[in-house]
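Record pair follows.
FIRST:
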Amino acid sequence: MADFIHDRFMPQADASEVPERHEMSYVRKALVLSMMLVLLIGCFVVLRPFIAAILWAIILSFSTWPLHRRIERALGGRTTLAAAIMTLAIMAILVGPLVALGIKLSENVVRVFETLHAAMDRGLPPLPDWLVGLPILGTGCRRCGACWRAAIPICARRSGPISARSATGCWRAAGIFSRGRR
C-alpha cells in the first residue's frame, strides 16, 4: 500500500530531468581555495603556542603505548583504568621533580635576599685565591671584583630608603612563600 501511494503521489525523476552538475568557475575555485588558506593560517596562528606541547604529547603517547597496552591486558581490558594509571604515572614522573625543585627554590629565596642585603651592608667578600690565580682569567676576575666592590656602596647610598622598603617587602613575601602561609 505504501509503495502505491509513494508511486502515485511522488513525482518520478526521468533521466532527462536530472539536473546537470554545475562546474565551478575559476573565480569560485580561487575564492574557495583562498578561504581555505585563510582558515588554515588562522588555525596555525591559534595553535602556534601549543605546538611544542602537542609534539611532546605525540612523543609521549608513541613511546608509552606498549606499556599502556601491557597495563590494559593486566587489568583485563579496562581501557579507562589503564589510561588513568598511565596518566598518573606520567604526571608523577614529569611533574614530581618540578614540584620538588620549586619547593627547594622557594626555601632558598630568603637566603638569597639575606646574602644580597649583607653584600649591600658589608660589601663583597674578597675573591678566592684559586680564582685570582687562574692563568688567563685571574687578572680580569680581580679587576671585575674590584669594580663590583666599589659599585655596591654607591648603589646602596643612592637607593637607600627605596631599596630598604622593597627589600623588606621582598623578604616578607619570600618568607611567607617559603613557609606556605598567607
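SECOND:
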Amino acid sequence: MLRQARPLAPLILALAAAAAPAQQPPAAPAPPTSPPLAHSTGPDITVQGQTEPASTVPISGPTDFISPMGEPFRSDDKLSGAEHWFRHADADGNGRLTLAEFRTEGMRFFTTLDTDHDDVIGPAEISHYEVDIAPEVTVVSSYGDVTKAKQDSDGNITEPPYPTRLGAGRFSYLPMPEPITYADTNFDRGVTKLEFAKAIEIRFKMLDANGDGAITRQELPKLGSPHDNYR
C-alpha cells in the first residue's frame, strides 16, 4: 500500500525559519556627546593666589630706578625708570613678568658686572659697581642732600626727620642699600653666580604679591621721590 506523499512546501518553510538568525532587539540610542573642553591659553591659577588681568598702564615714578637686582635705569623720556626696567625684563611683552624672565634679566646684569668672567662678582667689581655704575648705593645718610644728614663732616648733628631708606633702597622696590652685596650670603666679599641666582628667586617672591608666579605692574609697590622716605 502506497503512503501518501506529504507536501514539501511546509517542510521547506520550516527548515528556512530554523536556519534564519534570531532577530536582535533594536539598539538603544547612543547618549548625546558633550562638546570637547576648550583648553585655556591663559596663565595658570596657583593654589597660592589667583591671576588677574595684566595692566598696560605704565608704571609711575621718578626717572631714576634701581632694579631689584641692582641695575640702574635712568629715563630720559616721559616714562619712569621702573617702566623702562619692566619693559626690558618682560621679554614677551604680555605684562606678566615670570620668574624665567626675571631670572634672565638678573643674570644678564650679573654677566655685565662679572668683567673677568670667573662667575664671581669680586671686590674690585663690586667697587666698580658702587662707584661707576650705581653711585646712588654709596649715599647713606644724606641722600645727597646735606641738610638731611644726621652728621656732617664737621660733626654737626642735624635734627630729625631721618631717612627710612638708604642707598639704592631710595630708588627701588626693595629696601636694600646695596643690592649686590646683599646677595653675599657667606660674607666673603664676593657674590658667586649661585648666590646671585638664589637672590633672584628670593626677590621675585618678595615682589610677586599674590603668589601667582608672575609680577604685574599693578601689584608692584608705589614709588615715590627718593626724598620722600623720611620720618
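COMMENT: Confidence is low (pLDDT under 50) at residues 31-47.
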